[in-house]
Amino acid sequence: MKTSLAKIGRARVALALPRHREKLRGLEGEDFDILFETYALAAARVEELLKTHSPHHDLVSGYREICLDIQEDIALILYRLNRQSH
Where are the domains of the chain? Predict the structure, then answer.
């Protein structure tokens, strides 16, 4: 069962990877939900730190890196799924 946090994460990834928006809808399962939840939490933390003008630039960079890593993982998964279907 998808949590609202997973839905938020999926939507945020779709914004970050607009070419893959349609294919993202097909990623189902608990593992993907956890991935999208993690993305949602990391992206929200980046926004929170930026709004508070936090002096913790290392934290902002770290959370942004998490987001980029997840984007890369998802793009790779979609690429592999696409290759398998052809």
Answer: 4-85
